[in-house]
Amino acid sequence: MSAGELKRAKRDVRRRVLAARDAVSEEEREVAAAAVAARVLELPEVRGAREVMAFSSFGSELSMDPLIERLTDAGVTVGLPAIVDGDLEVRTYRPGDPTTTTSFGAEEPAGGAPIDPLALDVVITPAVAFDRQGRRIGYGGGFYDRFFRRIRPDAVRIGVAAALQVLDEDLPAGNFDLRVHLIVTPEETIRCAA
Questions:
Q1: Residue 90 β-bridge partners
Q2: Domain count across the chain
Q3: CA-to-CA distance for 34 and 165, rounded, in angstroms?
Q4: Which of 113, 152, 185, 193 has the highest Cβ tally under 10 A?
Q5: Is the distance from CB of 3 to CB of 166 less than 8 angstroms?
Q6: What is the mean pLDDT of the chain?
Q7: How far apart are alpha carbons 130 and 119 in whole angstroms?
Q8: By percentage, how much of the chain surpasses pLDDT 90?
């Protein structure tokens, strides 16, 4: 598949899944977010984690607030991504800390201490769509694929999503696209051969 064909194939999946996700009610998303948080917290990889990168949800993404609050309450150092000079930087964040709104609607820590990517035990990973092998299609910026190359090989990459975002078909992917190790939905935890 050529680069142009890959880009078009990803755009088609992105459009289809975002339309379906946007149609889900706010109430359904709140229930799903709570279920995902509970499932993630049950994972042994998360129970043993000291430093976790989460993300600030925007649009029709499942809210990560319940997960961030419970991790923080458990004494885990939580970081959120901030885009700095075209790359993700992780900064500490606790619920209630000041944030700034990005051009696409997510919140970034306004302050917070930088976290070395090599210190992260777990990276909670957003996407528009996942497949059951751990491939993901994000929003098209490549930020997470570049970031994954800067974390430890044993750091666990966990995708979180509504069930409708996990497709049975193989997603289009290039050599630069890195997979997640697990995908957590409200209904299931999928262990991938990433």
A1: 81, 115
A2: 1
A3: 17
A4: 185
A5: no
A6: 93
A7: 26
A8: 78
How far, in Å, CA of 41 to CA of 32, rounded?
A: 14
- Residue-wise pLDDT for 9-44, tens only, equals 888 999 999 999 999 999 999 999 999 999 999 999
At 151, give phi and psi (nearest 5°). -100, 170
**Cα torsion 89, 91, 95, 97: sign:** negative
pTM: 0.94
Residue 5 pLDDT: 86
Q: Which of 82, 106, 105, 77 is nearest to 93 (CA)?
A: 77
- pLDDT grade, residue 172 (50/70/90)? confident
What size, in residues, is the chain?
A: 194
Task: Give the strand order in the sheet containing 129-131.
Answer: 136-137, 129-131, 166-167
Closest CA to 23 of 62, 57, 60: 60
Residue 62, amino acid? L
Q: Quick one: average pLDDT of 38-65?
A: 96
55: tokens are 């993300």
Report whether 92 contacts 78 (CB < 8 A).
Answer: yes
Which residues form the domain of 24?
A: 3-191
Could you report the per-residue pLDDT of 144-159, keeping only the tens digit for each?
999 999 999 999 999 9
Alpha-carbon Rg of the chain, whole angstroms? 16
Contact 180, 157 (CB under 8 A): yes
Q: Report the CATH number at residue 50.
A: 3.40.50.10420
